Every structure is written in structure tokens, then in C-alpha cells.
Amino acid sequence: MLLFGTTQLIAQTPVPNKQAFQPGEKLKYTVSYFMSSLWTDLAGLEMNIINVPGKEKPIYRLEFNASTFSSWDSYVKIRHSYQTWVDAASVKPLIMKQDSDVKGHTKKAKYSFKYKSKLAEIELESSDAPVKTKVTIADNTLDIVSLLYYLRNLDYDTYPVGKTFPISVLFLERVLNMKIKYLGKETIDVGKLGKKSCYKLALELERDFVVKRNSNFLWLTADNNRVPVLISAIFKEGEVKVKLTETNGLKN
Amino acid sequence: MNKQMLMKSNSVLVKTLIVLGFLTGIVGLGMAFTPVKIMALFPSLVALFISLIAYFIAKAKQEKRVVVFIALLIAVAGTSVALVNEFIVKDTVVVDQKFEEKKEQSVQEVEDTDELDELQDELE
Questions:
Q1: Which of A215, B71, B93, B100 gives 20 to 30 Å between its CA and that of B118?
Q2: Whole domain around residue A103: which residue ranges?
Q3: Which of A42, A56, A99 is the best residue to mutate to test the B interface, defined by the most B CB atoms within 10 Å of its own CB?
Q4: Domain total of chain A
């Protein structure tokens, strides 16, 4: 009976049915790091949606831009830019481009998602020589940016608490198999934006990779925008929280 | 009386407290200018506490208080700078023009080709 109940909760990767965002949306976050028993604001993160002009079938460019705050910049200079072009209807990634500069170590990466041939082509430029490689992907393989937008498009009101579904993510040139678990609703204090009722999700990895496998949580507003208000994860170096500070151009 | 008070040197206890007050105060003031400014409150408040004790002992024993004042001043400065930097000065995200140009170039490299259309066709 118990086995039957558990099996019921592990479903197939759901297909999103309603879009919670639109081009022009801009979200701002503060990235805080838990250091010596205190939370320290380390960097700012911006998430933008841009419509790519002149396309027959709509394509959105999803931008993640992170940069250290001025007080930290001379100690730990961090610049990350992830640009993911997605098919607007399915939010499946077509191309992901990463430009990073962490304390002078630069990295450029490009992932091209070829779903028909179930392959992703990876072009990498870093301090070492350029690398070109291919990895096998599945129908439910996303990248780190499109994952967040895909999760916004799911209808959690129809999910029982504990519902789990698989997803895979191409991140740092590896395909990571993950499980997304819906943990129910929680109220989160979003500072100036007030208290928000949120859907809480656990993002479980197969094994520790960059972050601890069972330490990643995401809270989305329990409304039609399903805005990510808080992300928390435990890295080898410590705990990190990404908190929403500003919203612009929300769809609903 | 005042002349006598100025002339009288500090006791060992007050001297020790002054040294401790100076050390913690300088550490606090230094930290107040770093990104971990809120942590500067710990040494600065300790410095303030030690310097105040030194001040009251020196006053009761009618000893010199000039050096104690300087230690107190450093502790107050460390505490104030830490509080102002943490709660009043707004930390902003660095705008890196060079990095922005690189990012723009990356976008153009993709959007100026037909690659997106070809990859989108693969979804059908």
C-alpha cells in the first residue's frame, strides 16, 4: 500500500500548460552568503526576459546577470552572464551562452540543444585551449536558466504535497539528473515586497555537485506570476540565499 | 588639582585596559572599511566597553585621561563607521562596461545567424 502511494507521487516530467511570464519582465535579487555566523550581501542578480525580434515562431532570450556589490568587488570580483534562448511556447532551450569572469578567470561556453538528435553541442573557451564536445540529452533536459522558467509554468494547485518528477539539467558541461519535489505552501517574508504565500520546491540532485544534493530549495509566489522569491542552496564554501528585491513588468 | 591629575601617570590596570582598548579599537576601525563592516561592531563595541572602564578607573584614581580619550575616540569611530556603512551607505552592483560589451557581442553572435531557427525546427 505504502509502495503504491509512493509510486503514485513519482510522475513523469509535466508539460507546462500556462505561461506565468512575458517579455519585458525584470527581476532583481540579492545574493547573500552565510559567513562566520552572519549573512553578508555579496552580489546582485538580474533576471530579464527579452523577445527576440523577427522570428516566425516566438523566441525569448532569458538573461541571468550576476555581479558583485561594489564593497566586495576588489576582494572577490564575480561576473556571470547566462543567456538562454528558448522556444517561447515550450520554454525548451535552444542555445545557452555563458560569459564568466571570477577573480580574473574567464570562461565562455555555448550549448546548442539538438532535441531531434538528442545531443547538445558544447563549445568551451576558458584559460585553457578551446574545447568542442557533445553530450547526450533527453527530451526533459533543460539548462539552469530555462529550468527556473519551466518551473514557473507548472500548475502547483493541482499537485498533491510530495509530488515528485524527474528533470535533467545541462550545467557545467554535465547532464545532472534531478528530482523536483513539491513541498506545499509556505509564507515567505520578501522584505519591502511584504509577506508572500509561496509554493516550496526541493531540487534534489543524484549526488553532490557544486551544491549538496538535498540542500536546494526554491520558493515561487503562489499566484499567477509564480515569481521566484527565494532560492537557497548549500555550497562547499557555505550556504547561499538569493532573495527577490524588485519586480518589473510582471505578466499578471 | 587639575595639574596634579594630568601629571599623575596611569596605573598598570589602566595601562593594560588602554592597550586592549587601542588594539580592539584599531581592529574594529579597520574592519569597518571592509565588506564585512557589520562584523566590525564586535571589536569596536568591546573597545568601547574596555575604554569606558579605563576612563572611569582613571577618573576615580585621578590619573591621566588623554590616552584613554583617544582609545575611546577610535572605538566610537569604528562603531559609527560600521553602522553608517552597513545601514546608510547603499551598496550597488558594479557595472562593468568591458564585460557588458562582451555580453552584447555574445548575443549578436547568436541572433545574427539562422542557428536559432534551425534549432527551433528540431523541436517539432
A1: B100
A2: 2-248
A3: A99
A4: 1
